[in-house]
Protein backbone atom coordinates (compact mmCIF):
# COMPACT_ATOMS: atom_id res chain seq x y z
CA UNK A 1 0.00 0.00 0.00
CA UNK A 2 1.33 3.43 -0.96
CA UNK A 3 2.13 5.83 1.87
CA UNK A 4 2.36 9.63 1.93
CA UNK A 5 4.87 11.41 4.11
CA UNK A 6 5.09 15.17 4.56
CA UNK A 7 8.43 16.53 5.72
CA UNK A 8 8.40 20.02 7.22
CA UNK A 9 11.68 21.97 7.34
CA UNK A 10 12.42 25.59 8.09
CA UNK A 11 16.11 26.20 8.78
CA UNK A 12 19.55 25.09 7.63
CA UNK A 13 20.06 22.33 10.24
CA UNK A 14 16.72 20.84 9.19
CA UNK A 15 17.87 20.52 5.58
CA UNK A 16 20.91 18.47 6.57
CA UNK A 17 18.67 16.07 8.49
CA UNK A 18 16.13 15.92 5.66
CA UNK A 19 18.57 15.10 2.85
CA UNK A 20 19.54 11.51 3.79
CA UNK A 21 15.94 10.57 4.61
CA UNK A 22 14.70 12.12 1.37
CA UNK A 23 17.21 9.97 -0.53
CA UNK A 24 16.21 6.84 1.41
CA UNK A 25 12.50 7.42 0.76
CA UNK A 26 13.11 8.23 -2.92
CA UNK A 27 14.59 4.76 -3.34
CA UNK A 28 11.19 3.22 -2.49
CA UNK A 29 8.54 2.84 -5.17
CA UNK A 30 5.53 2.85 -2.83
CA UNK A 31 6.16 6.20 -1.16
CA UNK A 32 4.99 9.74 -1.87
CA UNK A 33 7.20 12.25 -0.08
CA UNK A 34 6.11 15.90 0.01
CA UNK A 35 8.65 18.44 1.29
CA UNK A 36 7.34 21.67 2.80
CA UNK A 37 9.69 24.59 3.47
CA UNK A 38 8.14 26.94 6.01
CA UNK A 39 10.40 29.81 4.95
CA UNK A 40 11.68 30.37 8.48
CA UNK A 41 15.13 30.83 6.87
CA UNK A 42 14.09 32.83 3.84
CA UNK A 43 17.44 34.07 2.51
CA UNK A 44 18.57 32.09 -0.55
CA UNK A 45 22.08 31.87 0.94
CA UNK A 46 20.55 30.30 4.06
CA UNK A 47 18.34 27.75 2.33
CA UNK A 48 18.33 27.25 -1.46
CA UNK A 49 22.10 26.69 -1.61
CA UNK A 50 21.76 23.90 0.94
CA UNK A 51 19.27 22.02 -1.23
CA UNK A 52 21.75 22.21 -4.12
CA UNK A 53 24.69 21.13 -1.96
CA UNK A 54 22.77 18.21 -0.49
CA UNK A 55 21.44 17.06 -3.87
CA UNK A 56 17.77 17.11 -2.92
CA UNK A 57 14.93 18.56 -5.00
CA UNK A 58 13.64 22.00 -4.10
CA UNK A 59 10.63 21.86 -1.77
CA UNK A 60 7.19 21.11 -3.16
CA UNK A 61 5.78 24.04 -1.21
CA UNK A 62 7.16 27.14 0.52
CA UNK A 63 4.92 28.67 3.18
CA UNK A 64 6.82 31.97 3.08
CA UNK A 65 6.67 32.56 6.82
CA UNK A 66 9.83 34.69 7.06
CA UNK A 67 11.09 36.42 10.17
CA UNK A 68 9.17 37.51 13.26
CA UNK A 69 8.89 36.75 16.95
CA UNK A 70 8.69 33.16 18.14
CA UNK A 71 4.93 33.48 18.52
CA UNK A 72 4.50 35.06 15.09
CA UNK A 73 6.57 32.39 13.34
CA UNK A 74 4.85 29.54 15.16
CA UNK A 75 1.37 30.89 14.49
CA UNK A 76 2.11 31.58 10.82
CA UNK A 77 3.44 28.06 10.24
CA UNK A 78 0.38 26.53 11.91
CA UNK A 79 -2.07 28.65 9.95
CA UNK A 80 -0.43 27.96 6.58
CA UNK A 81 0.42 24.30 7.11
CA UNK A 82 -2.97 23.09 8.34
CA UNK A 83 -4.83 23.43 4.99
CA UNK A 84 -1.94 21.77 3.18
CA UNK A 85 -2.09 18.78 5.54
CA UNK A 86 -5.86 18.55 5.10
CA UNK A 87 -5.40 18.54 1.32
CA UNK A 88 -2.42 16.15 1.27
CA UNK A 89 -3.77 13.71 3.89
CA UNK A 90 -0.36 12.35 4.92
CA UNK A 91 0.11 9.12 6.82
CA UNK A 92 2.94 10.74 8.80
CA UNK A 93 4.23 14.29 9.19
CA UNK A 94 8.01 14.24 9.70
CA UNK A 95 9.62 17.10 11.63
CA UNK A 96 13.30 17.76 12.20
CA UNK A 97 15.37 19.21 15.01
CA UNK A 98 14.21 21.95 17.33
CA UNK A 99 13.32 25.15 15.49
CA UNK A 100 9.95 26.94 15.68
CA UNK A 101 8.80 25.27 12.46
CA UNK A 102 9.37 21.86 14.07
CA UNK A 103 7.08 22.44 17.02
CA UNK A 104 4.45 24.25 14.94
CA UNK A 105 4.21 21.43 12.39
CA UNK A 106 4.06 18.78 15.12
CA UNK A 107 1.16 20.58 16.80
CA UNK A 108 -0.75 20.93 13.53
CA UNK A 109 -0.39 17.24 12.72
CA UNK A 110 -1.24 16.08 16.24
CA UNK A 111 -4.40 18.20 16.34
CA UNK A 112 -5.45 16.77 12.96
CA UNK A 113 -4.91 13.23 14.22
CA UNK A 114 -1.96 12.65 11.88
CA UNK A 115 0.99 10.66 13.20
CA UNK A 116 4.15 12.66 13.89
CA UNK A 117 7.74 11.45 13.49
CA UNK A 118 10.47 13.51 15.14
CA UNK A 119 13.96 13.26 13.70
CA UNK A 120 16.54 13.99 16.42
CA UNK A 121 14.26 13.30 19.36
CA UNK A 122 15.28 13.23 23.00
CA UNK A 123 18.00 15.88 23.07
CA UNK A 124 17.86 17.98 26.25
CA UNK A 125 19.90 20.92 27.52
CA UNK A 126 17.65 21.36 30.59
CA UNK A 127 17.98 25.10 30.00
CA UNK A 128 14.45 26.46 29.75
CA UNK A 129 15.70 29.88 28.70
CA UNK A 130 16.50 28.30 25.31
CA UNK A 131 13.50 28.47 22.96
CA UNK A 132 14.80 25.31 21.31
CA UNK A 133 14.42 23.36 24.56
CA UNK A 134 10.72 24.19 24.69
CA UNK A 135 10.37 23.18 21.04
CA UNK A 136 12.12 19.84 21.68
CA UNK A 137 10.05 18.86 24.69
CA UNK A 138 6.70 19.83 23.16
CA UNK A 139 7.51 18.08 19.88
CA UNK A 140 8.57 14.87 21.61
CA UNK A 141 5.46 14.88 23.75
CA UNK A 142 3.11 14.82 20.73
CA UNK A 143 5.22 12.58 18.48
CA UNK A 144 4.32 8.97 17.71
CA UNK A 145 7.74 7.96 16.33
CA UNK A 146 10.79 9.35 18.11
CA UNK A 147 14.05 8.92 16.20
CA UNK A 148 16.84 9.27 18.77
CA UNK A 149 20.43 10.04 17.66
CA UNK A 150 22.19 8.73 20.79
CA UNK A 151 21.72 6.54 23.85
CA UNK A 152 21.50 9.54 26.17
CA UNK A 153 18.60 10.86 24.07
CA UNK A 154 16.80 7.51 24.54
CA UNK A 155 17.40 7.75 28.30
CA UNK A 156 15.96 11.28 28.38
CA UNK A 157 12.76 10.14 26.67
CA UNK A 158 12.34 7.14 28.95
CA UNK A 159 12.87 9.35 32.03
CA UNK A 160 10.03 11.57 30.81
CA UNK A 161 7.66 8.61 30.69
CA UNK A 162 7.54 8.12 26.92
CA UNK A 163 6.83 4.50 26.03
CA UNK A 164 9.74 2.53 24.64
CA UNK A 165 7.55 1.34 21.76
CA UNK A 166 7.59 4.92 20.40
CA UNK A 167 11.37 5.33 20.67
CA UNK A 168 13.77 4.20 17.94
CA UNK A 169 17.53 4.55 18.39
CA UNK A 170 18.41 5.06 14.74
CA UNK A 171 21.61 7.07 15.13
CA UNK A 172 22.69 10.50 13.99
CA UNK A 173 21.31 11.46 10.59
CA UNK A 174 23.49 14.61 10.49
CA UNK A 175 26.45 12.28 10.18
CA UNK A 176 24.78 10.64 7.16
CA UNK A 177 24.93 14.02 5.39
CA UNK A 178 28.47 14.66 6.53
CA UNK A 179 29.77 11.31 5.28
CA UNK A 180 28.04 11.77 1.92
CA UNK A 181 29.53 15.26 1.50
CA UNK A 182 33.08 14.50 2.64
CA UNK A 183 34.55 13.76 -0.82
CA UNK A 184 33.18 17.01 -2.23
CA UNK A 185 34.34 18.94 0.85
CA UNK A 186 37.88 17.61 0.56
CA UNK A 187 37.97 18.39 -3.18
CA UNK A 188 36.66 21.92 -2.60
CA UNK A 189 39.69 22.89 -0.48
CA UNK A 190 37.87 26.01 0.69
CA UNK A 191 40.66 27.08 3.12
CA UNK A 192 43.03 27.64 0.21
CA UNK A 193 40.71 30.33 -1.18
CA UNK A 194 41.26 32.29 2.03
CA UNK A 195 45.02 31.70 2.21
CA UNK A 196 44.83 29.37 5.21
CA UNK A 197 45.21 25.65 5.87
CA UNK A 198 48.06 23.38 4.75
CA UNK A 199 50.29 24.34 7.63
CA UNK A 200 48.70 27.78 8.08
CA UNK A 201 46.39 27.28 11.09
CA UNK A 202 43.16 29.18 11.54
CA UNK A 203 40.11 29.40 13.77
CA UNK A 204 36.60 28.95 12.37
CA UNK A 205 33.75 30.77 14.12
CA UNK A 206 29.95 30.71 13.97
CA UNK A 207 27.71 32.54 16.44
CA UNK A 208 23.98 33.14 16.22
CA UNK A 209 22.15 32.22 19.44
CA UNK A 210 20.18 35.02 21.13
CA UNK A 211 21.95 34.39 24.45
CA UNK A 212 25.22 35.35 22.76
CA UNK A 213 24.35 37.96 20.17
CA UNK A 214 21.28 39.78 21.51
CA UNK A 215 22.85 41.07 24.74
CA UNK A 216 25.17 43.99 23.87
CA UNK A 217 27.60 43.38 26.75
CA UNK A 218 27.93 39.68 25.93
CA UNK A 219 28.38 40.33 22.22
CA UNK A 220 31.03 42.96 22.90
CA UNK A 221 33.00 40.48 25.04
CA UNK A 222 32.70 37.86 22.31
CA UNK A 223 34.00 40.21 19.64
CA UNK A 224 36.94 41.15 21.89
CA UNK A 225 37.69 37.45 22.49
CA UNK A 226 37.66 36.70 18.77
CA UNK A 227 39.98 39.62 18.12
CA UNK A 228 42.35 38.19 20.74
CA UNK A 229 42.26 34.80 18.98
CA UNK A 230 43.07 36.54 15.71
CA UNK A 231 46.37 37.75 17.18
CA UNK A 232 47.60 34.14 17.05
CA UNK A 233 45.97 32.84 13.85
CA UNK A 234 43.45 34.06 11.27
CA UNK A 235 39.81 33.88 12.36
CA UNK A 236 37.33 32.99 9.60
CA UNK A 237 33.86 34.13 10.61
CA UNK A 238 30.91 33.24 8.33
CA UNK A 239 28.52 35.79 9.83
CA UNK A 240 24.87 34.92 10.36
CA UNK A 241 22.66 37.82 9.17
CA UNK A 242 21.21 38.50 12.62
CA UNK A 243 24.70 38.39 14.17
CA UNK A 244 26.01 40.89 11.62
CA UNK A 245 23.07 43.19 12.34
CA UNK A 246 23.75 43.07 16.08
CA UNK A 247 27.49 43.74 15.64
CA UNK A 248 26.83 46.68 13.34
CA UNK A 249 24.21 48.07 15.73
CA UNK A 250 26.91 48.20 18.41
CA UNK A 251 29.20 50.11 16.07
CA UNK A 252 31.70 47.24 16.11
CA UNK A 253 31.49 46.43 12.41
CA UNK A 254 34.65 48.26 11.25
CA UNK A 255 36.89 47.03 14.08
CA UNK A 256 35.49 43.48 13.80
CA UNK A 257 36.01 43.40 10.04
CA UNK A 258 39.56 44.67 10.51
CA UNK A 259 40.52 41.97 13.02
CA UNK A 260 38.53 39.06 11.61
CA UNK A 261 37.89 37.64 8.15
CA UNK A 262 34.16 38.14 7.73
CA UNK A 263 32.51 35.78 5.26
CA UNK A 264 28.90 35.64 4.10
CA UNK A 265 26.92 32.55 5.16
CA UNK A 266 28.59 29.70 3.29
CA UNK A 267 27.02 26.62 1.66
CA UNK A 268 27.20 23.29 3.44
CA UNK A 269 30.04 21.71 1.46
CA UNK A 270 32.21 24.82 1.80
CA UNK A 271 31.52 25.00 5.53
CA UNK A 272 32.44 21.35 5.92
CA UNK A 273 35.63 21.96 3.96
CA UNK A 274 36.53 24.82 6.31
CA UNK A 275 35.73 22.70 9.38
CA UNK A 276 37.92 19.81 8.25
CA UNK A 277 41.11 21.87 8.26
CA UNK A 278 40.40 24.21 11.18
CA UNK A 279 42.77 24.31 14.13
CA UNK A 280 39.78 24.92 16.36
CA UNK A 281 36.10 25.74 15.86
CA UNK A 282 34.37 28.29 18.11
CA UNK A 283 30.59 28.06 17.86
CA UNK A 284 27.22 28.03 19.57
CA UNK A 285 25.72 25.70 16.96
CA UNK A 286 24.37 22.28 17.82
CA UNK A 287 25.24 20.68 14.51
CA UNK A 288 28.86 21.82 14.53
CA UNK A 289 29.34 20.21 17.93
CA UNK A 290 28.43 16.88 16.33
CA UNK A 291 30.36 17.41 13.10
CA UNK A 292 33.59 18.37 14.88
CA UNK A 293 33.22 15.38 17.20
CA UNK A 294 32.90 12.98 14.25
CA UNK A 295 35.85 14.62 12.47
CA UNK A 296 38.05 14.90 15.57
CA UNK A 297 38.33 18.69 15.19
CA UNK A 298 38.72 20.63 18.47
CA UNK A 299 35.57 22.60 19.30
CA UNK A 300 34.78 25.33 21.83
CA UNK A 301 31.05 25.84 22.33
CA UNK A 302 30.07 29.19 23.80
CA UNK A 303 27.16 27.99 25.91
CA UNK A 304 26.51 27.06 29.52
CA UNK A 305 24.81 23.77 28.58
CA UNK A 306 24.52 21.50 25.59
CA UNK A 307 21.74 19.20 24.48
CA UNK A 308 24.50 17.05 22.94
CA UNK A 309 26.55 15.97 25.99
CA UNK A 310 27.98 13.05 24.04
CA UNK A 311 30.14 15.58 22.16
CA UNK A 312 31.81 16.56 25.45
CA UNK A 313 31.92 13.10 26.96
CA UNK A 314 33.10 11.18 23.90
CA UNK A 315 34.28 13.86 21.53
CA UNK A 316 36.33 17.02 21.24
CA UNK A 317 33.83 19.59 22.51
CA UNK A 318 34.32 22.01 25.41
CA UNK A 319 31.67 24.30 26.90
CA UNK A 320 32.69 27.81 27.88
CA UNK A 321 30.94 30.99 29.01
CA UNK A 322 31.51 34.24 27.10
CA UNK A 323 33.81 35.63 29.80
CA UNK A 324 37.01 37.58 29.32
CA UNK A 325 39.87 35.22 28.55
CA UNK A 326 37.76 32.06 28.83
CA UNK A 327 37.39 31.44 25.09
CA UNK A 328 41.09 32.05 24.46
CA UNK A 329 42.09 29.59 27.22
CA UNK A 330 39.60 26.96 26.02
CA UNK A 331 40.74 27.31 22.41
CA UNK A 332 44.40 26.92 23.40
CA UNK A 333 43.57 23.83 25.45
CA UNK A 334 41.48 22.37 22.64
CA UNK A 335 44.24 22.82 20.08
CA UNK A 336 46.80 21.19 22.37
CA UNK A 337 44.61 18.11 22.90
CA UNK A 338 43.57 17.37 19.33
CA UNK A 339 42.92 13.60 19.13
CA UNK A 340 45.10 11.45 16.91
CA UNK A 341 42.05 9.43 15.84
CA UNK A 342 38.43 10.71 15.82
CA UNK A 343 36.10 8.87 18.21
CA UNK A 344 33.81 6.12 16.96
CA UNK A 345 30.28 6.61 18.25
CA UNK A 346 27.44 4.10 18.17
CA UNK A 347 25.25 4.36 15.05
CA UNK A 348 26.99 7.51 13.84
CA UNK A 349 27.73 5.44 10.75
CA UNK A 350 25.97 6.99 7.76
CA UNK A 351 22.97 4.65 7.90
CA UNK A 352 20.56 6.45 10.23
CA UNK A 353 18.26 7.45 7.35
CA UNK A 354 18.00 3.87 6.14
CA UNK A 355 16.93 2.81 9.62
CA UNK A 356 14.33 5.61 9.77
CA UNK A 357 12.93 4.61 6.39
CA UNK A 358 12.65 1.06 7.68
CA UNK A 359 10.58 2.24 10.65
CA UNK A 360 8.36 4.49 8.55
CA UNK A 361 7.75 2.14 5.66
CA UNK A 362 8.20 -1.38 7.06
CA UNK A 363 7.41 -1.01 10.75
CA UNK A 364 10.98 -1.96 11.70
CA UNK A 365 12.15 -1.57 15.30
CA UNK A 366 15.50 -0.18 16.50
CA UNK A 367 16.35 -0.14 20.18
Short description:
The protein is an alpha/beta fold. The protein has helices at 12-26, 48-53, 70-88, 100-111, 131-142, 151-159, 173-188, 190-193, 210-213, 216-230, 241-249, 253-259, 268-277, 286-295, 310-313, 326-336, 352-362; strands at 3-9, 31-37, 61-62, 92-96, 115-119, 145-148, 167-169, 203-206, 235-238, 261-263, 280-283, 299-302, 317-320. The longest helix is centred in the first third of the chain and has 19 residues, at 70-88.
How would you characterize this protein structure?
The structure is a single chain. The chain is 47% helix and 15% strand. The protein folds into 2 domains: 185 residues, Rossmann fold (3-Layer(aba) Sandwich); 153 residues, Rossmann fold. It is α/β, with parallel strands linked by helices and 367 residues long. Helix 4 packs parallel to helix 5.
* Main pleated-sheet profile: 7 strands, parallel
Straight-line distance between termini: 26 Å
The shape is globular
How many structural domains does the protein architecture include?
2
Mean of the pLDDT scores? 93
The Rg value, from CA coordinates, equals: 20 Å
Major sheet: order of its strands?
3-2-1-4-5-6-7
Please report which band the strand proportion falls in: under 5%, 5-15%, 15-25%, 25-35%, 35-45% or over 45%.
15-25%
Going by helix content, strand content and strand pairing, the class is: alpha/beta
CATH topology of the largest domain: Rossmann fold
Amino acid sequence: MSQTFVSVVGARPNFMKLAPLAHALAARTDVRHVVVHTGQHYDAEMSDAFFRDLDIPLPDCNLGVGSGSHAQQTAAVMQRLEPLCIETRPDVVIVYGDVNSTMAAALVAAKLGVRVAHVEAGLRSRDWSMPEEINRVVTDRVSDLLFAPSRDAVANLCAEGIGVERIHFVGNVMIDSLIAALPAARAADAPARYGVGRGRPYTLVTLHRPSNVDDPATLRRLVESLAALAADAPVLFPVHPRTRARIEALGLGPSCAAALRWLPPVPYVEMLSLTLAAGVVVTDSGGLQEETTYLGVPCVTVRAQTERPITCREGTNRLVLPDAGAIERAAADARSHRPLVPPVLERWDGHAAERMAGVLCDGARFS
